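Q: My labmate handed me this sequence with no annotations at all. I'd like to see what the chain might look like in three dimensions before we decide whether it's worth expressing. Could you predict it?
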Amino acid sequence: MPIRQLSETMINQIAAGEVIERPASVVKELVENALDAGASRVEVVTAGGGLNLIRVTDDGSGIPEPELSLAIARHCTSKLAEDINDIRSLGFRGEALPSIGSVSRLSIRSRTALGDSAAEIGIEGGRVLPVRPAAANRGTTVEVRDLFFATPARLKFMKGERAESSATSDVVKRIAIAFPAVRFTLAGSDRSTLELPATDDSPEGSLRRVAQVMGAEFPDNSIAIDAMREGVHLTGHVSIPSFTRANALQQYAYVNGRPVRDKLIAGAIRGAFADVLPRDRHAVTVLFLTLDPAIVDVNVHPAKADVRFRDPGLVRGLIVGAIRQALADAGIRSATTGAAGMMAAFRPGAASYNHGGPANGHRSYEAAYRASGSTGFDPARSPQRPLDMQFEGAGFERAGARHGGFGEPGQAAFDAGELASADARAGQSEAAETLLGTVLGAARAQVHENYIVAQTRDSLVIVDQHAAHERLVYEALKNALHSRPVPSQMLLLPEIIDLPEEDAERLAMHSETLARFGLGIERFGPGAVAVRETPSMLGETNVQQLVRDLADEIADNDTVETLRERLDKIAATMACHGSVRSGRLLKAEEMNALLRQMEATPGSGTCNHGRPTYIELKLADIERLFGRR
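A: Here is what I predict for the chain of 629 residues:
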């Protein structure tokens, strides 16, 4: 087949294949156009998941009638001057409208602030219709009907109506977070209406918009980020380690106001939380990077979803360092969701002991019923029995006397005599009253030989002693590990590893950093490195695999975090085996000392495996459980 020039319609359809992946892609392009036009209100209406109808209405500056025909021509735009490196708008290529018009029935109706009337132009499958007068308010309305009718093969790859509607909602929410001063509405016959009222561009207004999109509980469980390094400014919020999700869908990142899904940013977030989250949990984040447009390339992806930084190591280091510093500065905090789950578990529902069966299927009442058999409630065997109640006349001895005032025989070691309750015993300590004002309060008891019950002035705190001490030991080991060069062991024979020349060069450039972690590397010819020392902590390790992993990471992120992570993993294992075990009885002084160490240690709200170390239940919540509020 001879070489020939493709038709304009074919060119636009090829471009549409890159830019217009699904209805959500159309919504993204049209909403970005509205925001570039200075809109303060954007309304989106869809039908049939966006395949039947997409209508985007804004109150922006509008398009003058003589420019309507240019708006639907390829590579015609008002957003780009002569410098491709100085892009300050969301759109800049001038491809979206002609690409959409080539695969759908598109109409654009617009009116400027100074215009006496509106004008409308249309495209049907690439065929341009003449401009005609229309009636409209100031702004622009773009209507897309029968998406992909001109390329029916694309319809076979569309998902169901619900999935396409969900993708559109995600696009609108993702954009809305970056523009809190704009009011967004998403409605249609295929969805429930989403309204995001305008706030303002202040940090407080931005956080209110984030709460509108991500839920009201996020601000209560987040930490503010504000850091600057070499002209790159990072702001936003990240969740505390005990507030997580099962996937990374609620990780929002923006570069100069543009929503992106960049693997470097995602990797940096994952690295920053590596120490405090389990592998199957993900942090909730909203991060804004602001930097000179000249040092970031946004023209590397057809849908502008990815970006390329001139100095990726700088950006990654800023994100990791800022998040870790913020987590350390925030001190110890527990997620509000923990208290909510605790209340749900405690709330029994209506029940009476004088009945023939368990109440509402609640486990504790079922246990009481099974323990009592068919004769009714037996207080001595009930999980709800008071510790110090005497059942005079029923033949029951004093429960507190049997077990030294605690509900379990093993707790007798803590008892100094026959006292009224665990609270009264701990209250004898002169320091207890002052400890009530601390974050984790004063230790009152140890139950099930693993959980410390503490009291503050306005809450009840339950601490998992093993998980808490594991985090304390791990942080101490890490500080010792990274405060000085890591001890290394000399190999009897150097390990020669063949690598591509560029990988060998990258490793050689980072040899000093690797040496501080105990890995001695030097060049061995053009395409190989010689490993003479390895970290002693690693013991016998696969040196070749380690070096290749390091080379891959340096190529991707210009860092050597792989080696640090391996050393930290060993420290975590040592901490797990060297910490206070479940089942160990602690004295009151030991429990209080553990609480004070937790308050002084960054990241102690979760253990090395990402589990929470404590749960806090506010006094107000306890009063609600008992109907006092």
